[in-house]
Amino acid sequence: MYGIYNALYMRDGKKFEKPPLQSYENPEKCEAVEKIAATLEDRLERDFSDKEKFPFHNIEHSRRVATDTRKFLEIIRNVDLYLVSKEDLEYASILGYAHDIMQNAELKEGKMLERHRGYEMFNRKRLAELEKNYGKIILGNEEESARILTNELNKYRDVFDDETKTTLRSAIGATYTEAEFAAVLPKRAMSVTHPDGRRETLNQKYTVSPKFFQPELTPESSLLALALATADIRGTVGAKQDFKEFREDGNNEFLELQQKAIVAEIKAGIERISPERRNEIIKTILGWVKFQVPFAIWQRELFHESIKKNERVAASGKRKEIIAALNAEYRFFDQNIIAARDRYERLEKERILTGEQSELNDEKFSAILREIGIR
Q1: Which residue has the higher pLDDT, 368 or 361?
Q2: Choice between 1 and 194, residue whose per-residue pLDDT is larger
Q3: pTM of this prediction?
Q4: For residue 209, how far is the Cα from the chain centroid?
Q5: Which residues, 6+ apart, have CB-to-CB distance to 106 below 8 Å?
Q6: Per-residue confidence (pLDDT) for residue 311, from 0 to 100
Q7: Cα–Cα distance for residue pair 77/88, rounded to 1 Å
Q8: ∠ CA(237), CA(238), CA(243), 5° rounding?
Q9: What is the structure's pLDDT at 125?
Q10: Is the dihedral of CA 275, 352, 348, 236 positive or negative?
């Protein structure tokens, strides 16, 4: 089973194990993966079909991640057949379906949703705080999701060995996202290329922003982990040409986080919202729209770093070709960064979101609510 462990071979004078090229199709394993995928999909349908509660973390998100994970692996396999097995391609479905299958959170009226995040060491750091705040030990959603997948794999003890289960579990752990607040983007990162080849340096107002990164995604991570983590957080901003997909992802995340706060407030009737509160809501929305710009820049930077430093990719004799192929697939970062910037500056220029008006009438207020996806 060389694929899942991404066995290495000769590079830079170092000798690694190189298995013989052969078919790794295993009917029993293929059947088990199909059954697990069906079980997980049924659970997603049951638990995440309510798009008002889960506008972002719904079954469509998990299906997209599964598809993009497989495509990422196929790109590598097409360049270097020894790095990714047919089994790895099949695992993409169960990883995509399982990675967000637990979405525990504190959801209180008038408050932004607070997800229970964490995986292993990053979960342990938060246990005492969580127990103090909520009176019970709470594991992070990434760790709980990994456990759910492991439980499914354990139903087929003669099919999946312990090393396989550990690799798959760690891949889900790689999707855990941490935030570094007030992170500063390097100057070089502020440069973008337009589709026509024109270069531009973005305004410095986007330089300081929260940096969302995946601490469990390391150079030692498996290619399954690299593929899944990339598809999860960078798929729509890097691999999708239509800005609508990245924009809708951002809108849906806002709606999910604000479902018991701003969204609930709006649904109760905009006529009940004072001019002062309308301006506060507009400022919050504007801040979120602006944040999409540096978020996209950080994901571009982290994408390039992750594929260049991954030890499996680095050890391949076709390293340059693999990186070039992945860059070709994830070639829309700059295009989406520019579109996100243009969106924010259009709204800012129209002065709809500035909060400087003493009163926002229903028409203007509703227009910006529609911009973030509140109809």
Answers
A1: 368
A2: 194
A3: 0.91
A4: 18
A5: 113, 114, 116, 134
A6: 97
A7: 10
A8: 45
A9: 62
A10: positive
The gap from C-alpha 79 to its chain's centroid, in whole angstroms, comes to: 25
Phi and psi for 193 in degrees, rounded to 5?
-115, 125
**CA-CA distance, 33 to 27, in Å (whole number)?**
10
Element housing 127 (H / E): helix 121-134
pLDDT value at 156 more than 70: yes
Structure tokens at 161: 């060995």
Mean confidence (pLDDT) of the chain: 90
User: Count of CB atoms within 10 A of residue 274's CB?
Assistant: 9
Contact 249, 48 (CB under 8 A): no
Provide the residue count of the chain: 375
CA–CA dist 186, 321 (Å, integer): 27
Render 194-207 in DSSP notation, one character per residue.
-TTS-EEEPPGGGS
Rounded to whole angstroms, the Cα distance separating 134 from 277 reads 30
CA distances from 287 to 247, 284, 291 (A): 14, 5, 6
In the chain, how many H helices and how many E strands?
15, 6
Cα separation of 322 and 318, whole Å?
6
CA dist 278 and 340 (Å) reads 23
Tokens describing residue 17 = 């194990």
Which neighbouring-strand residues pair with 201?
Answer: 191
Find where tokens 């057949």 sit: 81
Query: What type of residue sits at position 363?
Result: E
Report percent pLDDT > 70 for the chain.
87
The answer to whether 238 and 303 are in contact (CB under 8 A) is yes
* Distant-in-sequence contacts of 184-187, Cβ < 8 A, 24+ apart: 184/208, 185/209, 185/294, 185/297, 185/298, 185/301, 186/301
Task: Give the residue-averaged pLDDT of 231-247.
Answer: 98
Residue 199 dihedral angles phi and psi, to the nearest 5°: -95, 150
By C-alpha distance, which of 186, 220, 203 is closest to 302?
A: 186
In single-letter form, the type of residue at position 355 comes to G
Q: Give me the residues paired with residue 192 across strands.
A: 200
